[in-house]
């Protein structure tokens, strides 16, 4: 970076102290950038709903909150929401004076950054973590091809066209943008990753917790298949529950541990209660973030049976990487997002999506192959360290930022 370290203002939907995959990726990026000596701050829009002061420190990171109320019909309301965030960016810039605005999806954050960037004369990086029209379909709040879907897609295209550089978290999103006509030279990939400094020696198995959940303890305890995350339809947990009768036919002592909650929680519990394998399925509900490692430690295999869709084919999830970093075996459906993260039989096990029978067979085969577990765990951990450690990946931002700062400086020199 230039001798005078530039200031990067991250424009965000929400942030810590709220907990989500979105905020954890943000934390990893900002912490890794700070470790390189960069100056960073975050500013959130109206969708950050946690109570707190206008200027807040969370886990050592500094965030500014946007305040205000918006009304009106859909589209007009969102336009005003982006306007409030753009105004807040302008106010913060008077004192903190950022050199680059780095907006993160959804597109409303990108729109606000574009509007502020034009007024301030600052370059804008727009980072896409998912296409939010597809995410809405995946979580049941939208329908593919609907007017709302098309409007969000059009807004996304507008922001991508206006941004100086565009970053995606994976190859699938990158390729989709190229197919839309976005110049490949405008795009960069910043892969999803984990902070390996947070994953040292995995937590030991908590025998008391295992006994409390009826999972057994000691050498006679059966294998545990785990899932920790949000219970959305696209996660395919209904297929995992449907796979359990066939799995326990081959491995009668196998148990399924489901930790989390979400829109599908009630339906999944009803399905499990009606299953002949009901006795082998445990629901824990949501647990505090600082307790999650205790539940990871109970599982032998973490399962991610995502259904096939545009969302799951284009986007790489974070959870399998965290599991591999924790030294867990990973079994996942062969959707595009999973294929980009792991190699079947080397760093993980892949099985056909939307197919409980194949899911059960893959899990049973993996349980039969205990002699290979050590090598697979080591290969998975090495893969994460080489390709998905934030301490390394964050340096990819350096080329993006440098190119924009040089271009901005050249423009100022020409104007002078």
Automatic annotation (TrEMBL):
CDD domains in UniProt = GT4_WbuB-like (cd03794)
Q: Where is the Glycosyltransferase subfamily 4-like N-terminal domain?
A: 21-193
Spell out the SUPFAM superfamilies in the cross-references: UDP-Glycosyltransferase/glycogen phosphorylase
Superkingdom to which the source organism belongs: Bacteria
* Pfam families associated with the record: Glyco_trans_1_4, Glyco_trans_4_4
- Known InterPro entries for this protein? Glyco_trans_4-like_N, Glycosyltransferase_grp1, PEP-CTERM/XrtA_GlycosylTrfase
Official protein name in the record: TIGR04063 family PEP-CTERM/XrtA system glycosyltransferase
